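Quick one, T. Sequence first:
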Amino acid sequence: MADERYQQAEEIFRQVIKLDEKPKEAYVELAKVLKAESQNAEALDLLLKAAVLDPADAEPLYLAGSIYLDLRKPQEASVQFQRVLTINKLFPLVNYQLGRAALMMGDPKAALNYTELEKRANPNLADAYLLAADAHTVMQQYTMCANEYQKAIKLRPQQAIIYVKNAQCYRKAGQLDAATAMLNVRPRRSLVWLIYGRNREPSTN
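Structure tokens:
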């Protein structure tokens, strides 16, 4: 059913592109559909065309950067996200995405700098703290890693894997009691979540 909806949307946007002299919006929307269908090469081409049509719009560049990250091409992604910043320094999540790209490129210090910027702009974004924890892990700063996971837990208390990763950081930092305590937080529910890979507890009905 989803495939049919994507195909219908794709046909509509392709028709709009044929009829519109400057189909920036259609380029972007078609690119989103193609991304969902894993047709990333054409999606990127459309997004870059959209960026040319409207250089003041940062969204096509942001979406292009996100696709490059999905393709594990962090350098190309970083270029697009930096272009976003030149257009709009307040564009949502761009510093978080730059942090992801930096970590993929093996630069955890830069990743931390970007996560700090993102946390100031968006203090309730758990993903920024999780990314910071990953960067500290790469740098073997395990106490700081655990601190970041603790902050993420406050924002996303139902995601069991965060508790497990937090315990791993405590263990590597030599804080075995803290590691054990973390694993004992709702241990049965956490185990069920890990087995089923869910973010909420399965129904007992």
